[in-house]
Amino acid sequence: MKDILNKFTFRSIFVSLCLTALGVIIILNANEILFWVIKGIGVFLLIDAIIRFIQFLRLDSDEKSINFDIIRAILETIIGIIAIVNSSSVVTLLYIFIGVIVITEGLLHLQFVLTRKSSINNWILNFLIALINILCGVFIIAHPILTSELINIIIGIEIIVSSVLGIFSYIYLFINLKKAAKDNEEENI
Fold it and tell me: Measuring CA to CA, which of 30, 41, 119, 181 is 20 to 30 A from 47?
């Protein structure tokens, strides 16, 4: 049992160290990683399109007439090629779409606050939150690449913090397991 726990502890520490390194890499290369993720999604879409196309070819003529896999394959091929060839445009469009959603949510919140301000406690705070939401959406649309960098940096920091905490907890666990094993050996003597 002791060997299994030691292996688990050292393996867990190793994984946490690898995650820490990943967090640092994400922080230092935020844009490149996001672009590679988009390119990876593009490759996945192309592979899925090929599979759908092959499956479509295997259908009999009656099934082909009601199956839409060929259309999905064509769309996935187009989106996959765009993602691979021009990942920066895909990232920009993605963040513009997110910005539009954030602005829409902010405007809906603002409308609700203004129409119900007489029945809402602290309506000014809710009003300010709605304005901040709208401003965040505008920022996301105006600076999509900077937004992606900031999000990746936050993700990298979170990975580093959680993995460092994991390392400390595994070291603490290892020390306590060693102490418990030593105490157990002394009791058996």
Answer: 30
